[in-house]
Amino acid sequence: MNALLYKGNRLADWLGRQSVDILRVSLGLIFLTFGVLKFFPGASPAEALVMRTIDTLTLGVIHGRSAVLLTAVMECFIGLTLVSGRFLRTGLLVLGFSLVGIMSPLVLFFSDLFPGAPTLEAQYVLKDIVLAAAGLVIAAKALAASPLRLRA
Fold it and tell me: CA 49, CA 83: separation in Å to the nearest integer?
């Protein structure tokens, strides 16, 4: 019984040390994959929603394929910073900025996303709540590991 408790404690210790890094790499792979898809017209199921959202948020300044390409670049950058751990704070800042755009269809197009039951697009946006929460966990560790220096 003691050997089982010892192994359980070792597993818990390992999880405590590694789980946020595993979450960081996993989230990075998700962003990288979804970002790469957006470089290929018609490959991303969110393409039309991205175009509509960016067009609305920028008041028509950025629209169509340009909006999708901008999103693709941002998502790939976020993904690469999360996977590699390099420029992590910058990647997390871009992630925070992009989450405004990612979540905005819930406000901008609520009745279209939820005409009764949630549409496929609504489900796509709702899953991003989990991605945002994962980003918060990663940011908490990253900021704790390298605290901001305030000038007195």
Answer: 26
Alpha carbons 19 and 88: distance in angstroms, whole number: 17
Residue linked to tokens 């789980």: 19
For the four alpha carbons of 139, 140, 145 and 148, in that order, the dihedral sign comes to positive
CB atoms within 10 A of CB 73: 14
- pLDDT at position 39: 96
138 contacts 20 by C-beta, under 8 angstroms = yes
Query: What are the tens digits of pLDDT across the range 88-115?
Result: 999 999 999 999 999 999 999 999 999 9
Token pair of 6 as six digits: 């010892």
Half-sphere exposure of 36 (CA within 13 A, CB side): 7
pTM to 2 decimals?
Answer: 0.84
